[in-house]
Design goal:
- It is a single chain.
- The protein has 218 residues and is an all-alpha fold.
- The protein has 6 helices and no strands.
- Helices cover 85% and strands 0% of the residues.
- Helix 2 runs antiparallel to helix 3 and helix 5 runs antiparallel to helix 6.
- It is elongated, with a radius of gyration of 19 Å.
């Protein structure tokens, strides 16, 4: 009976995790759209909506703590709950970064020509990492989680490309230093989003296999 009750709570946890994952995917995609179109209203809505992500994190955290305290899970069950607690922290930070990007959008004034060539590719790669990390959790797909982890190198390389392009743009027109700095900050937020997606994927792998960050079976 106790096991059945725990299984029911796991189903609730999975549903809430999927809801939070969908929320942050929508949020970061909207932030990217606001950036590309200079949509100030959308950017403000994203900033205000960050409270929804924070609220969902608290709801899941509360559920996980109740499961730990009342059910005292072990082995795989414990990994499922503890991994969820870790993942929601990274999900919440992704939401924060989307709000950070949106805040810069509300304050900056830049032309499309100022955006580095690799800027769009980097933002798309980071968003795709988030999408696949959430998908890996939903499907309990270890191979997909490992693909996400490997993809972080691509985002890192694109960040270096963007940084170099901004240096070159700035050297050609030093008066646009403010724009260059804003775009560099946004690129850094996308790079951090990739890092958080990697963390989520690592916890997916751990929840399924019990292995974390390159551990090997003894």
């Amino acid at each position: 009976m106790m096991k059945n009750r725990f299984d029911e709570q796991v189903e609730v946890l999975n549903t809430q995790m999927i809801e939070m994952g969908s929320l942050i995917e929508t949020t970061i995609e909207s932030a990217c759209d606001a950036l590309q179109t200079a949509d100030l209203q959308k950017a403000r809505e994203i900033i205000e909506g960050d409270a929804l992500v924070d609220r969902k994190e608290r709801e899941i955290e509360s559920l996980c703590l109740r499961m730990l305290l009342t059910r005292q899970p072990v082995a795989h069950d414990l990994r499922v709950v503890s991994s969820a607690l870790k993942m929601i922290t990274d999900m919440e930070r992704i939401g924060d970064h989307a709000a950070d990007i949106s805040e810069i959008v509300t304050m900056m004034n830049f032309s499309a020509a100022m955006q580095p060539e690799h800027f769009g590719a980097m933002s798309r790669a980071a968003i795709e990492m988030v999408h696949r990390a959430i998908d890996a959790y939903v499907r309990r797909d270890v191979d997909l989680a490992r693909d996400v982890i490997a993809s972080d190198d691509t985002v890192d390389d694109l960040f270096c490309d963007v940084k170099q392009e901004l240096i070159e743009l700035l050297s050609a027109d030093a008066s646009r230093g403010g724009e260059a700095l804003d775009l560099l900050m946004i690129a850094k937020y996308f790079e951090r989003i990739g890092d958080h997606a990697t963390n989520i994927a690592e916890w997916v792998e751990y929840s399924v296999t019990g292995l974390y960050k390159g551990d090997v079976l003894q």
